[in-house]
Design goal:
With about 400 residues, this protein is of the alpha/beta class. The chain has 18 helices and 13 strands. It has 2 domains: about 270 residues, Rossmann fold (3-Layer(aba) Sandwich); about 90 residues, formyl-coa transferase, domain 3 (2-Layer Sandwich), CATH 3.30.1540. It is about 40% helix and about 15% strand. A hairpin with a 5-residue loop joins β9 and β10. α6 crosses α7. It is elongated, with a radius of gyration of 25 Å.
Length: about 400
């Protein structure tokens, strides 16, 4: 089980989503991340994956004993039912599960459910209280709906990739599948909104989340600036265009300090700290607009100061002056950080072979009904028999499905 350093479980009542039945049909990242988030807070998640190899995420990135360690994060607190959705018998099992579920999550290409005779309209007809989350690259409608869309493509179409570069350099990806994760979180928001609507009306509904729209929704003033001024925001490296000073500044030991001195009073304290009261008291720099006009001058002044000090010395001085600042963390920094540990964000799970694996803790933190790590990620089909018995299948029926490769 996960460690609970810094959590609030000793003060907690039942999990926030205890009793919520979720059926997960997706794979890889977006749909499963949404289901994982619900499972962390007590939802009963049954993950359906194909017999044999299971979810492809099981084999992504670094493997331990043949299984991705990522799997222990993405599928914790879930049950696994290995089921062939291409068969009428497998589809019938899904319909029976959906008839008793509160939420169904899928992230296949539009039309996949319909092709398996599992159209949301039909599932809702059988269970009007069902909430169906559909995550896809471009959404269920529109001229691009049938295009394959992974997170990296959505990040580009949503406007993010254009900004993630040094000026004049090739745009780079963020380094994680941020488009998928943003879509998953929008999906969770949609589910919670739909649950509130169902509480009032008794009716379920379909939630349509497009990866590119989830990214675009986080792009701040990008569109209105273009609309009002014809301004196309360009890549700016580590700076924050239009907000100054805010940048990464090189220090004497070769590291970088991230300094956000863009509040009016913060700016004055920062200038006093670096011995530049002439800038701090300059009336032309009293507000953000004036500082943006002279951002190169301000960055040079701050960079001159940091260049003579180590990252640790810079951050200590900035902290004493109440100027927001931080270092660029590697995962090694994260794993050693006392604040991460105090907040319960460095969890541990014991694997089947007895080894201990560090995993991210639960986020967000609820005071009365926090999430928890209740069980490790399942092996393929670990819960197939138990799940099928719960919807009324006999051991003989389960054995017959297994003999035909429909269930594993």
């Amino acid at each position: 089980m996960a460690s609970t350093h810094g959590d609030l479980s000793s003060l907690a009542g039942p999990a926030a989503l205890a009793g919520l039945k979720v059926l997960e049909l997706g794979q890889l990242i977006a749909g499963p991340f949404a289901a994982k988030t619900l499972a962390d807070f007590g939802a009963e998640v049954v993950k359906i994956e194909p017999p044999g190899a299971g979810d492809p995420l099981r084999k992504w990135r670094l493997l331990k004993d043949g299984t991705s360690v990522w799997w222990q994060v993405q599928s914790r607190n879930k049950r696994s039912l290995a089921l062939d959705l291409r068969t009428p018998e497998g589809q019938d099992v899904v319909r029976r599960l959906a008839a008793e579920a509160d939420v169904l999550i899928e992230n296949f290409r539009p039309g996949a459910l319909e092709g398996w005779n599992l159209a949301p309209d039909d599932l809702l007809a059988a269970n009007p209280r069902l909430i169906v989350l559909r995550i896809s690259g471009y959404g269920q409608t529109g001229p691009y709906r049938n295009r394959p869309g992974f997170g990296v493509v959505a990040e580009a179409m949503g406007g993010l990739r254009h900004l993630t570069a040094e000026p004049g350099r090739v745009p780079v990806r963020v380094g994680v599948s941020i488009g998928d994760t943003l879509a998953a979180l929008h999906g969770v928001i949609g589910i919670l909104l739909a649950l509130q609507h169902r509480h009032a009306s008794g009716q379920g509904q379909v939630i349509d989340v497009a990866l590119y729209e989830a990214v675009f929704n986080c792009m701040e003033s990008l569109l209105p600036e273009y609309s009002a001024f014809g301004a196309v925001r360009e890549a700016a490296g580590s700076a924050l265009p239009g907000i100054a000073p805010s940048n990464a500044y090189r220090c004497a030991d070769g590291g970088y300090a991230l300094i956000a001195g863009n509040g009016d009073s913060i700016f004055r304290r920062l200038m006093t700290l670096i011995g530049r009261d002439d800038l701090g008291q300059d009336a032309a720099l009293a507000d953000n607009a004036g500082r943006v006009a002279r951002v190169a001058e301000l960055d040079a002044a701050i960079g001159t100061w940091t260049a003579t000090r180590t990252v640790d010395a810079v951050l200590a001085a900035l902290d004493s002056a109440s100027v927001p600042a931080g270092r660029i963390y590697t995962v090694a920094d994260i794993a050693a950080d006392p604040h991460y540990r105090a907040r319960g964000m460095l969890g541990e799970v014991q694997l089947d072979d007895g080894s201990v694996l560090a995993v991210p803790g639960i986020c967000p933190k609820l005071s009365a009904s926090p999430g928890s790590h209740r069980r490790n990620a399942p092996t393929i089909g670990q819960d197939s028999d138990a799940t099928l018995r719960e919807i009324g299948l006999t051991d003989e029926q389960i054995a017959a499905l297994r003999a035909r490769g429909i269930v594993a």
